[in-house]
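U., I forgot to send this yesterday:
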Amino acid sequence: MGNSLGNLFRITTWGESHGGGVGVVIDGCPPRLSLTEADIQPDLDRRRPGQSSLVTARQESDRVEILSGTFEGRTLGTPISMWVKNEDARPEAYSEMAVKFRPSHADYTYQAKYGIRNWQGGGRTSARETIGRVAAGAVARKILREQFQVAIVAYVKTGAAH
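Result:
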């Protein structure tokens, strides 16, 4: 699988877990949609690390910044680029992974597929890669709600399985 998904609404994610940051380019968003960082941030806040024992303890604010594709709070119909800066990047903490593969991660698969990998925190195989997908999903949900009156509702419920 590549780094791009979709046809009419196409997203391309970019960046690495312990690099400068991660982001997404959205192509196919209609013009004149009201869109600011405040529309996207609540979804990124829900996926932010360090909020439970189930996720990494890495401390990241995951503040999204829209770099292009909007003007005065409205989309232009051109590609929208967004990014989140990595604040708690510690690539040196993963030096052992240069010669070992982490269990339950895609390190080996990536190496086998591409013949090269970024072992610093998993590079593109890190969960930080989902930031771009979450940001794009927030935009897609807004389009569906405002243009088609479609509401997307989801939640995670923990507890005993029935």
